[in-house]
Amino acid sequence: MFNLIKIRSVVNSTCVLLLMSVSSVYAGSDAAVAEAEAALAQAKELGAEWRLIDSATGSKAGSLSKLLAVAKEKASNGENDEVIRIANKVTVAAMLGIDQAKAQASASPTY
Prior knowledge:
Mean pLDDT: 84
């Protein structure tokens, strides 16, 4: 049973990554940021906001909220490729955090 849950989680994560990479090709930076904001709001609601290391935050671990703020700042400077890269990273991490929170919602110690 545990292996089935693990496999399902990996498949879900892979599908999310695939969808995010395809959608970023067709979406502009505004759409990518909007998608990231929606995913991040869901993750925060579940208490699943991750911290990531990214060069945009000075190679230090920062919250997804901070990364999204950096993306918005870069959008105002016209750095659309960087905005899309960061927004997609935030979206994927938020979605994976949501999956993790749902998978571990009924977690309990095993003795």
